[in-house]
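Hi L.,

As promised, TraX protein:
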Amino acid sequence: MLAIALLRTKPEFSVIPMRRWAYAIYPLHFLVLLGVRVVLGRV
């Protein structure tokens, strides 16, 4: 959703920067999900 909002607000973004964003966000997204599972597992 955030990426779509960025695309709408900044149409000058090309494919290459978006791919860089994706490569940067995917590992962070995985770590966040893993952290949430660990926290929920402890509770």
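DSSP finds two helices and no strands in the chain.

Thanks again for sending the construct details.

K.
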